[in-house]
Design brief:
Number of strands: 5
Largest sheet: 3 strands, antiparallel
Number of helices: 3
Structural class: alpha+beta
Helix content: 40-55%
Strand order of the largest sheet: 1-2-3
Distance between the termini: 101 Å
Order of helices and strands: EEEHEHHE
Length: about 130
C-alpha cells in the first residue's frame, strides 16, 4: 500500500488502484483541537451547572412558599370580632375614655373595634363595648 502526498490531502492507494483522498492531520494540530474542544466542554459544563443550580434554588423557594401557605406557618389566623353591645360616641369622648367607662383594656377595645381610628372619632359613631375578638 502506498501513499501520495498532495497539498492538504494525501491519496491512499489500496490493492485495486483506487485513490481515496484522506485529510492529512498533523499531530500538533490534533492536540490543539483536543484542547480547544476540552475547553469548550468545560465552559459548557459550567453554564449547565449554573443553570441547574438556579433551577433547584427556584424550585426550593417555590416549594417552601407553597408549603408555608398550606401549613399556615408565618401567617396569623384572622378572626372576625363579634360585637354584642354598641354605644354611640358623645361629645368629648376618646377611645381611652370609652374603654375606661366600660372597664375594658385598650388592647381589648382595639381588638373588638378593628376599623375605628381613635384619632378621628365623631359624635354619633357606633363603637363596640362588649364582644369577642
Amino acid at each position: 500500500m502506498s501513499c501520495l502526498l498532495h497539498g492538504p490531502f494525501y491519496y491512499k492507494y489500496d490493492g485495486f488502484m483506487k485513490a481515496t483522498p484522506q485529510k492529512r492531520e498533523l499531530p500538533f494540530l490534533r492536540q490543539k483541537e483536543r484542547e480547544r474542544r476540552s475547553d469548550n466542554m468545560a465552559e459548557g459544563n459550567k453554564i449547565a451547572t449554573s443553570l441547574i443550580l438556579v433551577f433547584m434554588l427556584s424550585l426550593l423557594i417555590f416549594a417552601s412558599i407553597a408549603e408555608s401557605r398550606i401549613l399556615g406557618v408565618g401567617t396569623k389566623a384572622k378572626s372576625t370580632p363579634e360585637c354584642d353591645t354598641v354605644v354611640g360616641v358623645e361629645s368629648g369622648d376618646t377611645c381611652f375614655d370609652i374603654a375606661q367607662k366600660f372597664q375594658l383594656t385598650t388592647d381589648f377595645f382595639n381588638s373588638i373595634n378593628p376599623n375605628i381610628d381613635c384619632n378621628e372619632l365623631f359624635v354619633g359613631q357606633w363603637v363596640c363595648v362588649d364582644g369577642t375578638a
